[in-house]
Amino acid sequence: MEQRAGWQQYLDQRWQQLCSNNADVVLETLEEAFDDNEAPSAAVGVTGDEVSLVVLVPTVEQVVPERMPTTTQAGNLSLRKLPQRDRAAYYRQFVCGQVPVTVREAFAVAPAIGSARVAVLRHEGPDSYARPLVSCLLATRIHRASLNGVRWADADAAAIVNDASNELLLNPRPRTGELLPLNLASEPAITELINAVDLAELTAGQ
Length: 206
Description:
By secondary structure, the protein is an alpha+beta fold. Helix content is 39%, strand content 27%. The strands form 2 sheets. It has a 5-stranded mixed β-sheet with strand order 1-2-5-6-7, with helices on both faces. The chain has a two-stranded antiparallel sheet with strand order 3-4. 25% of the residues are buried.
């Protein structure tokens, strides 16, 4: 009985710490929540009621095939090569799709967090020292209230990110819409966020 009471006291204390945005407890809770995510994710900081998150996405070659199955006019199965614009659009949906998934999970397990800054990174392989190289494809800031009323079953991921973000950085190639890495030379906050991540751990599975 005493052990059960002690466990309940511990849980109550953790909940109070979550509700007061104790940084260590929030980060630890998010680490556990993100452990089984499809896209590797990490919480790297808490400032006030805002959490900073990073999400790692694979390359377009890993998630969008060059050819898609279709049928000819005669009804035969065919593999049609995807136009570059279509392939870029599918990849953009995939990249954007990781943002609401991660942000909603963060808001669900950390109830006092009011906003999230998210950087979506892509693993570009190792450098000459075998250290992981990443580029940043998307950066956004989303308030919890911005997700109220979103029609999740109807809206596509890119539209949700565009509409729910009060800050959004993307760099699509004009002709094809291909997502290009952001130029971070004038974005010290994003650079600082990336530098705070253990990239070796984040990219370990890719």
